[in-house]
Amino acid sequence: MLFKLFITFLKIGLFTFGGGYAMIPLIKEEIVEKKKWISNDEMLEIIAIAESTPGPIAINMATYIGYKNRKILGSIFATLGVVLPSMVIIILISLIYNSFIQNQYVKYAFVGIKCAVAILILKAGINMIIKAEKKALFIILLVLTIILMLCIEIFSWSFSTIFIILIGGIIGIVCGSIKKAGKQE
Fold it and tell me: Based on the domain organization, do 118 and 34 belong to the same domain?
């Protein structure tokens, strides 16, 4: 199982461009749909936890999934699997960066890769929205977050998205606590 964890995350790390968010659809396909190591609901929870903890989301997700399956060794192997390809590629690119980046075809390729990554991230977000429970709080927070993010972008407000995540987490904790207290009475 440790070898399977390592190889699975090595493949995810090797064949995904665009960082952690671009890895989410591939992690979902491999871990939830093909291997069935976690459920779709667990995937949504892992994304929320990985997003709210320090560090890159894909590494946090790999660490959590590895830990869930094989404890400490699983988290180490999954994390190494997702990190090693990027690390090796970055080291190799840094050796030839200056001559590499001046090539016009490379510039065109990166424009195409950026577009593809944006679409992958959008697809992951839409899939999460479609599969999430459609409760009133979820819909209200989703709409308010989209409006706030658009305002931040359009009006060039200086507001960190970290605060949006923290506010959403606090609202979720408060509402969950109220709901839990209501059930106990």
Answer: yes
